[in-house]
Protein: D-alanine--D-alanine ligase
Amino acid sequence: MKRKIALVTGGFTGESVVSLKSAAVVARTIDTDKYDIYKILIFPGNWYHETASGEKIPVDMNDFSIQLNGEKIKFDGVFNILHGSPGEDGKLAGYFDMLNIPYTTCDALTSAITMNKGYTKAIVKDIPELFVAKSVQLFGNEVSHKESLLKELRLPLFVKPNNGGSSIGMSKVKAPQELQEALDKAFAEDSQVLVEEFVSGREFSIGVYHAKGNTTVLPATEIISSKEFFDFEAKYSPGVTEEITPGRMNEEEVARVNRIIEKIYQKLNCKGAVRVDYFLEHETSKFFFIEINTVPGQTETSLISQQVRAMGMEAKDFYTELIEEMFT
Structure:
C-alpha cells in the first residue's frame, strides 16, 4: 500500500513564490508509484489542498487531515518544501512533532536556530578549519549603531536581516554614508540585523543530506555573479550569475570542504537535505561560513538540483531517499 505524503508549500513570506515553484517540480518528479502525493498550501489563515478541478479542500488543523471524496485522508509523512516561515523556522516542525507526523526537514530546534544567522555562527565557529567573518548582531535600529559599527568593524560591510532567506534586505556597504540606508533596509525585513566584515573570496554553495545510514556531501556549486553579491535578483533572475557545478576547487580544497560540511551538518543536528553557503578566501583559501539553508529550493535550476544531477543521481531517487529517511 502506498504511503500518503503531504507536499507542504506556500508560506507567510515573500519566499512563498519560490516555494510554489519548488513544489511544482517535486510534485511532477516524485515517484508516484511509491507515494500518493497531496499538495498542501499553507498561507496565513488559509491551509488547503487544491484538487485537479480547482476545489480548495480545507485542512483540519486538529490532526492535519483533509476530507476528500467522503474519505478522511491522514498523512504518513510530510515532504516540506515551504521556504521561510513557518516551514523553515521550526513552527511547522513543532506542530508536526505534536501530531507525531514525520517530515523530511530539520527538527524544530535546529530549524529555529539556523534561521538566525548570528546564533548559527556562534555554534559552528569552533569547528576545525572553519572561519567566520567578524560581525555584530543588532537588536533594534538605533541611531547610535552607525558610529559604533564603524569603530568596531572594517569596511566594506555586509548588512543583512538576521532571520530569513533569499538575500532579501541585504546590502553591501562600501562607504560610511551608505550604512544607515542599509540598516534601514535590513530592519524593514527583521527586528534583528547582522553586520559583518566583507570577505574577499570565491563563493560556493553546497548541499548535504543523510540517508541510508550515510551523510552525503554533494558536489559544490561555484557562484560567479555579475552583481556585487549573490542577492535576490542574482539568485532568481536568469543570466545574472554563472553557476559552475562542480565548482572549481583542487583536491585538497574539496576534501577539506567536505570534512567541514559534514561537521556542520552533525553539529547542528540537521535532517534531510540542507545547503551551506561559504567563501574560500582569496590567497589563503580559508573556508568562511556564510549561512545554512535548511529548506533549499528544488526547482530545476536550484543549486541542490544541479548538484544531484552532477553526482549522477536522478531527482526522483533523491526525493525517495529523503522520504524514506524520515521513517527510519
